[in-house]
Specification:
Largest sheet: 5 strands, parallel
CATH class of the largest domain: Alpha Beta
Bound molecules: adenosine-5'-triphosphate, magnesium ion
Oligomer: single chain
CATH superfamily of the largest domain: P-loop containing nucleotide triphosphate hydrolases
Number of strands: 14
CATH architecture of the largest domain: 3-Layer(aba) Sandwich
Strand order of the largest sheet: 2-1-3-4-5
Radius of gyration: 26 Å
Number of domains: 4
Length: 453
Amino acid sequence: MNQVLVVEDEAVIRSALKRLLERHKYQVSEAGSVKESLEKYDLDKFDVVISDLRLPGAPGTDIIKATKAPVLIMTSYSSIRSAIDSMKMGAVDYIAKPFEHNEIIETLSKIIRERATLDKKEKPDSEEPQQPIHGMIGSCPQMMELFRRIRKVAQTNSTVLINGESGTGKELVARAIHNLSDRKDQEMISVNCAAIPENLIESELFGHEKDAFTGATATRTGLVEAANRSTLFLDEIGELPLEAQARLLRLLQENEIRKVGSVQSKKVDVRLVVATHRDLKQLVADGYFREDLYYRINVMALLIPPLRERGNDILEVADAILQKTCLRLKTSMLNFNDSASHAIAKYAWPGNVRELENAIERAVVLAEKNNIGEELLAIDLESTKIAESPAPIPNEPAEELSLEDYFQRFVLEHQDVMNETQLAKKLGISRKCLWERRQRFGIPRKSNKKQIA
Ligand SMILES: Nc1ncnc2c1ncn2[C@@H]1O[C@H](COP(=O)(O)OP(=O)(O)OP(=O)(O)O)[C@@H](O)[C@H]1O
Ligand SMILES: [Mg+2]
């Protein structure tokens, strides 16, 4: 029988909750404050602690650090802000008072289920040597840790947030999570939020009813529903407009979707994996991303390190890509000479693995001997000149340059010779995203310039 501790100072609520939980076969202990719960119980023995946020003496969030058990925080509707703060402090979830009976029962059983799968995975994991993930090369400690976490989260239904610079392998990680999960027999649905026009994205994702808007000539099923019983991968989640964010929040909270123009909702079973190269926290601070949604998707965060921080992995990845490229282009098997290897290891690769792939493909096409020299890679270690891919600005190591700085400089330096499509392509972002960033950084497109694209 699962053991639950209820920490609540109002005796009426506390005993009502106790009765409800007991009816659902939980063994319930009670406390009226954080202090009392610390004095009376060994907190680690509980499967879940449910605590009110506002308690006499100390807030319920103080329990989080005192126990290994997941802590569910109860709070009033008027203080959703503090609910969000509680999640920042490590609460597994929050529930707003007053709540429906089934709401708390469902939340509770979800927490227990997820904890159980995690625990089951934890033990064999720590004993076995780390297995690489199919298709992903790397053996540096950060990548080994990433592989370990991928295997672990793949077994759960938790939402995963994948963070990483452009070209680091976010899509590859999403696919690995899906392929290692028990949803692998269904197809993963992959959506790039930056690629769909803003006015269409809600109906693309959630579907629409006939006549919901001009042009909606028939009822349409959305991509979320298509991902039922499978995984939905939302790439570039930072580009999702606010209205669509509200619908997504509903999906995460209630497992329900509602088509645009419909009054009826439908239950779905979708595992969400999202990715972004942007700093979502900053987007929240700037008002572009809903804070409540941020905490709902930031349940399991996976950070993919940039290539330049992976030590010797760079050469390992480069060799593997070289082999693959030679096979694909049906050339003889080529090697890098020493100067090429040196340049590859030294360069900062702002476009990460994708940029490396492009550089290698170009070199393979141009190669006339069995050896690939530095010159064929067109890596410019010294200059700001853009060869085929954006290079770091001289005298300022790329590590110290934030992506935002990099973006601004790149645009300012190249907008006179490149059109918007070319700029966006070089930066590895959509034109829409380029436009948005121009607005954000106050570098509007020059209107007197003729644009070809
Ligand atoms: N660790 C790795 N080993 C081998 N290949 C990799 C690795 N990581 C990424 N790649 C390859 O690099 C390319 C870019 O990966 P992917 O598309 O997953 O990156 P991304 O982060 O989604 O990029 P973007 O931000 O441009 O969307 C792909 O061809 C992928 O197969
Ligand atoms: Mg991608």
